[in-house]
Amino acid sequence: MVTCYPVENVKSCLVNRPPLVVFFVCLLSLAITFFCFGVYIRSYSVKDPDVTQDWNSFLQSISEVDFCAYENETASDSNVHLDDSAKGCLNKLGSSPLIDHGPIESLTVNTSKLSPKLLSMSVLVHLTFDLPKGLKSNKTYFRSTVCGRQLGLKNLAAQELINITVVAPSPEQPCVGQEECTQLLAPSTCITLTASAHVLPQTKNPPFCSVNLNDQMIPYYTAVSPKQNSQECVRCYKTNYNPDPHLTIEISQVEQFLCSRRLINTSCILLILSGVICCFAIACVHTDRQARTKMPLMNL
């Protein structure tokens, strides 16, 4: 008659077969992890990993730098401060900055007056600037020219120049529809970006806005500086961005369901393998008591 001692068999396996125990723990951990990921993906929205850059990431990179004025510069000044990174872009491109010191009548989404390779967009985003108090709405704006590498762009976009124009504080924009009005409740800024078409994100755009720049407005020309180096400047405008969930590109529901099902199926397979190892430890591992029981029988 064969007697089974499951508890003692498991103890013997833990003591005498550590590699098997480690393998079992790894399988069980993977099974639990895959199952949790599968449930999470099915229950929540997931960002599309194939989209390397959207408007949220682009604006977040802008908020990671400060716009600093090294001197009291207004429209009467004839030069624009560029740091070494931006100057390197100019040297490699062999072109001049996008900033034009002449009067500008309007900056809108209209691109008919620009080169086919350039795109100018005025968008309303949740990007706020730490500006001096007392600035009147639609009376002051500042500009800056940045290099793509300063914003963390890669490949060819890293060598491109981006012209940024911001009206401070931003004038109130009319909203159409309940959803758009809800988005505008958060602090927003109308920012105009002018750059090569491939530099700006090719995903869903933020709401458009229109800003008229006239001779009565006071411009300030600034240079971009990393936040850790902004203390060296005379005056800096710190930025802060609140990501807009409507601008995040998510995977479709079909892809979401497919990923979730595959993860849960893989988790079930790993759990079955873990169960097989448990059965092996309970039934096939011999303890010292079983060895002593068999010895008298063999002597007979």
From TrEMBL:
GO cellular component annotations of the record: membrane
Limits of the TMEM248/TMEM219 domain: 10-249
Primary subcellular site in the record, as a coarse category: membrane
Membrane-crossing residue ranges in chain numbering: 20-41, 263-285
Domain of life per record: Eukaryota
Subcellular location: Membrane
InterPro entries noted in UniProt: TMEM248/TMEM219 (IPR039493), TMEM248/TMEM219_dom (IPR039587)
UniProt keywords, alphabetically: Membrane, Transmembrane, Transmembrane helix
Record's keyword annotation contains Glycoprotein: no
PANTHER family xref list: INSULIN-LIKE GROWTH FACTOR-BINDING PROTEIN 3 RECEPTOR, TRANSMEMBRANE PROTEIN 248-LIKE
Name under which the protein is recorded: TMEM248/TMEM219 domain-containing protein
The species this protein was found in: Latimeria chalumnae
Source lineage: Eukaryota, Metazoa, Chordata, Craniata, Vertebrata
Name of the gene encoding the protein in the UniProt record: ZGC:158398
